[in-house]
Specification:
The protein is α/β, with parallel strands linked by helices. The chain folds into four domains: 55 residues, no CATH class; 161 residues, Substrate Binding Domain Of Dnak, Chain:A, Domain 2 (Up-down Bundle); 145 residues, Rossmann fold (3-Layer(aba) Sandwich); 214 residues, Rossmann fold (3-Layer(aba) Sandwich), CATH 3.40.50. The chain contains 26 helices and 15 strands. Strands 12-11-10-13-14-15 form a six-stranded parallel beta sheet, sandwiched between helices. β13, α23 and β14 form a beta-alpha-beta unit. 60% of the residues are buried. The structure holds Broken Fe4S4 cluster.
C-alpha cells in the first residue's frame, strides 16, 4: 500500500520523514497518536459545569439525550461553537487592541523606534471616524484615531465604529436581527455569560449572539488591526519574496520570527540590516544575517519588506529541524509549545516575548515597545552568538519559490485604473461578463490531520482553472506561495482563459496574497467596494463569492467564518463538523443564516465536494443577479479589460480617489 504523505509540500515532507528516521517527534506523529475525541469532535460534550462533563450520545441523541441539567444536544453544540467564536474573537481582538495601543504610544512619543508611515491612510481612517485632520499635527490626529478605536473594545452601548463601512443593506440586516456589536469585549463577555450553565438554552439565540461577537471581530478588532498596521508600517503594495523551507542560508545567521503581531518583526527587519549588526555577524564567521518569517508574522513582514516565509503552521517544527536556525523568536498565537523541547534537540534558541505567551523551556525576553530596538538588538546578538554552535545535522532542503505578495485592498483598487482612476469597475465588469466566474477567499490554517497544505493546493488549482479569482490570506497564502502558485506565470499555466486574460491585462497572479489572518478584513473591504461599485449585488450577500478554509484548526477560523457568513458570504470549512451532533444547529448555520444574511457556514471534509459546493454557490448567485451564464472557455481571444473607453468612463464618473 502506498504510504500516505504527511505534508503536501515536498520539502516539508522530506523533513518530516527525516524526523521519523531520527526519532524526532512532530505534530504529524502526535496527530497520528492522538485521534480526535469522537464526542467532543461533534460538539456533544458539555463541560461547562461540574455536574458533568456530560456526553450527549446514544441512539437518536438529538431527540433524547440530555445533560444533568436537561440541556439538549442542540443547546450544547451551539454553546460549544459560540465559545469557539468568542475565543477566536478575543484572540484577534487583543491583536487589534495591541496595535491601537502601539499607535497611541507612537502618537504620544512613548515608542520612539516606531513612526507613522502611511499618513494618507491615517487621514483616510480619521475621515471614516469623523476626526478632523486637515491642518493638524500628524501625531495629534493619530492620538485621536487610536483613542477612538480603543473605545471600540470597551464600548457598552451603541455601535462599533467600522460598522458603517459595511454596505447599507448589510447593516440593515444586522439591525433587523439585532446583532450589531456594541464593543468587542462586551460581546465576548456576553457569549461566555450566555453559554454558562443555566443561561441561554435556545440554539438560535446562542448562535445569533455568536454572529454578533464575530462581527465585532471582522468589522472591529481585526479590521482595526489591519488598518492601524498599515498606518504604522505602510500599506502593502506588491513585492517580490520567496517561500518554503529552503529560504535558510548555510553561511548566514538564520533567525525565524513566528506568530502574528508585527511590532517586533518590523524592528527586527531594521536591526538585521544594521551595518553594526552585520559586522558583528561577520566577526563570528557568518556572511550575514538572514531573517525569515513563519505563519502570519511572516505575512506581515513579507508584504511590507519582502522578507521570505519558511511556511505556515505545520512548518514551524520543520524549520528548526533543518538544523540551520540559530534562533526562533515568537510573539503571539499559533505557536506550538512543542517548539521549546524540539529546539533543545538542536542548537536553536527559542525565545518568547509576550506576557501573554510563556512556554516552559523557552527563554523569555519581554518585548516593550518603548525599548523596541534595544530588545531587537539583544535578540539578534543572541542569534549571532549562537552561530558557532551550529552542528552538522538536521535536514537541509533547498526548495524555495518566488512569489508576489502584498495586495492590499487599496492596491487592488489602484491596479484597476491607476492612482486617480482606481475603482472596482473592471473587476465587476469582468465578473458580469463571465470572464471571471466569481471570487473565492481561500484562507486559514494548514493542518496535520490531512496531508498538510494539500487541500489548499488542490482547491487553488481547480478554482483558477474554473476562472475563479482567488484572494488568499494566512497560512493558505503561504501554502500557495511555497509551491510557486503566487506568480503571474500561474495564470498562464493553470487559469481558465477568461481569468488568464484578466490577469494578463492587469499583470497580476490569479491568486492574490492579501496578508495575515487579521487581513481577512481586506476581503470585507473589497466586497463592500464591489457592492458600492454597482452591477453586482448592492450588498455583500448575493455576490458570486465564497469563503473556504479547507484545513482550519484555530478558534480564530470559526470567528472569521462567522463574520463572513453574517456579512453575506457562504463559507465552507474543511474537516469534520464541530456541530455535527445536532442537525438543528447545522440547519441554523446553513439554511437559517442564509435566509437572514445570505451567508452560511458549512463543514465538508471532501475537497471535491468543497469545490462543487463553491462553484454551485457562485453559479446560483450569478443566476440570481441575472448575469451572463458562465461558459467555460468562452473568453481568451480578445483583450478589452481596461481599454481607453473604459478608463474615460471611470474618469467621467469622477469617483473619489481613495487609492494609495
Ligand atoms: S497563522 S490562525 S494557523 S492561518 Fe495566522 Fe495560520 Fe491559522 Fe494560525
Amino acid at each position: 500500500m502506498e504510504k500516505k504523505a504527511h505534508h503536501a509540500n515536498p520539502a516539508s515532507e522530506k523533513i518530516v520523514e527525516w524526523g521519523e528516521a531520527n526519532q524526532i517527534e512532530t505534530c504529524f506523529d502526535r496527530a497520528q497518536k492522538m485521534k480526535p475525541c469522537p464526542i467532543g469532535e461533534t460538539g456533544a460534550c458539555c463541560k461547562i459545569c461540574h455536574m458533568g462533563p456530560c456526553r450527549l450520545v446514544g441512539k437518536d441523541a438529538e431527540a433524547t439525550a440530555k445533560g444533568v441539567c436537561g440541556a439538549s444536544v442542540a443547546t450544547v453544540a451551539a454553546r460549544n461553537f459560540a465559545r469557539m467564536i468568542a475565543a477566536g474573537t478575543a484572540c484577534h481582538g487583543d491583536h487589534g487592541r495591541d496595535m491601537a495601543f502601539t499607535l497611541l504610544a507612537v502618537a504620544e512619543g512613548h515608542a520612539k523606534d516606531f513612526k507613522i508611515t502611511d499618513v494618507r491612510k491615517l487621514y483616510r481612517i480619521a475621515g471614516i471616524l469623523d476626526i478632523e485632520f486637515e491642518g493638524r499635527p500628524v501625531n495629534d490626529v493619530a492620538r485621536d484615531v487610536a483613542t477612538k478605536l480603543i473605545e471600540d473594545f470597551g464600548r457598552q452601548r451603541g455601535e462599533m465604529n467600522f460598522i458603517k463601512r459595511a454596505p447599507q443593506k448589510t447593516q440593515e440586516r444586522w439591525r433587523k436581527w439585532d446583532i450589531v456589536p456594541r464593543g468587542l469585549d462586551r460581546e465576548v463577555a456576553e457569549t461566555l455569560d450566555r453559554t454558562t450553565m443555566g443561561m441561554d438554552a435556545d440554539p438560535d439565540s446562542i448562535l445569533m449572539h455568536g454572529l454578533r461577537t464575530a462581527i465585532s471581530n471582522g468589522w472591529g478588532g481585526s479590521m482595526i488591526s489591519t488598518e492601524v498596521t498599515d498606518v504604522l508600517f505602510g500599506t502593502p503594495q506588491p513585492v517580490k519574496a520567496e517561500a518554503s523551507l529552503g529560504i535558510f542560508k548555510e553561511d548566514e545567521v538564520n533567525i525565524v520570527i513566528h506568530g502574528h503581531e508585527p511590532m517586533l518583526a518590523e524592528i527586527l527587519v531594521e536591526v538585521v540590516n544594521d551595518p553594526e549588526m552585520i559586522a558583528y555577524a561577520k566577526s563570528k564567521g557568518a556572511k550575514g544575517i538572514n531573517l525569515g518569517g513563519m505563519c502570519c508574522t511572516a505575512n506581515e513582514v513579507m508584504m511590507r519588506h519582502g522578507i521570505p516565509s519558511a511556511g505556515g503552521l505545520t512548518n514551524q517544527e520543520l524549520s528548526i529541524m533543518t538544523g540551520l536556525v540559530e534562533l526562533m523568536v515568537v510573539d503571539v498565537q499559533c505557536i506550538m509549545p512543542a517548539l521549546a523541547g524540539l529546539a533543545k534537540k538542536f542548537h536553536t534558541k527559542f525565545i518568547t516575548t509576550s506576557k501573554k505567551v510563556k512556554i516552559p523551556g523557552a527563554q523569555h525576553i519581554q518585548f516593550e515597545e518603548d525599548r523596541a530596538k534595544e530588545i531587537a538588538k539583544e535578540i539578534t546578538k543572541l542569534a549571532i552568538d549562537n552561530y558557532s554552535n551550529r552542528k552538522k545535522g538536521g535536514s537541509h532542503v533547498t526548495d524555495k519559490y518566488p512569489l508576489i505578495a502584498g495586495f492590499s485592498h487599496e492596491y487592488i483598487e489602484y491596479m484597476q485604473g491607476g492612482r486617480y482612476r482606481g475603482s472596482f469597475r473592471p473587476l465587476n465588469d469582468a465578473i458580469m461578463a463571465g470572464r471571471v466566474r466569481g471570487v473565492v477567499g481561500l484562507v486559514g490554517c494548514d493542518n496535520p490531520r490531512v496531508p498538510a497544505t494539500g487541500l489548499h493546493k488542490y482547491l487553488a488549482v481547480e478554482l483558477i482553472k474554473n476562472d475563479v479569482l482567488i484572494v488568499s490570506s494566512g497560512c493558505s497564502s503561504v501554502a500557495c506561495g511555497s509551491v510557486g502558485y503566487l506568480t503571474p506565470e500561474m495564470a498562464m499555466e493553470y487559469a481558465g482563459p477568461g481569468l488568464r486574460e484578466v490577469c494578463e491585462a492587469i499583470g497580476i497572479p490569479p491568486i492574490l496574497h492579501l496578508g495575515s489572518c487579521v487581513d481577512n478584513t481586506r476581503i470585507l473591504t473589497i466586497a463592500a467596494a464591489m457592492a458600492a461599485e454597482g452591477g453586482l449585488s448592492d450588498e455583500i450577500g448575493g455576490m458570486p463569492a465564497v469563503g473556504i478554509a479547507p484545513e482550519w484548526m484555530s478558534e480564530k477560523a470559526t470567528a472569521i467564518a462567522c463574520y463572513f457568513a453574517a456579512s453575506g458570504v457562504p463559507v465552507i470549512m474543511g474537516g469534520e463538523s464541530p456541530v455535527s451532533a445536532s442537525k438543528e444547529v447545522t440547519r441554523i448555520m446553513t439554511e437559517v443564516w442564509f435566509e437572514r444574511f445570505r451567508g452560511a457556514v458549512h463543514f465538508e471534509p471532501d475537497p471535491e465536494k468543497i469545490l462543487a459546493m463553491t462553484l454551485d454557490y457562485i453559479d446560483k448567485a450569478r443566476a440570481a443577479l441575472k448575469l451572463k451564464k458562465y461558459e467555460p472557455g468562452k473568453f481568451g481571444t480578445e483583450k478589452v479589460l481596461m481599454d481607453m473607453a473604459a478608463r474615460r468612463e471611470i474618469e467621467k464618473a469622477g469617483r473619489p480617489h481613495i487609492g494609495l
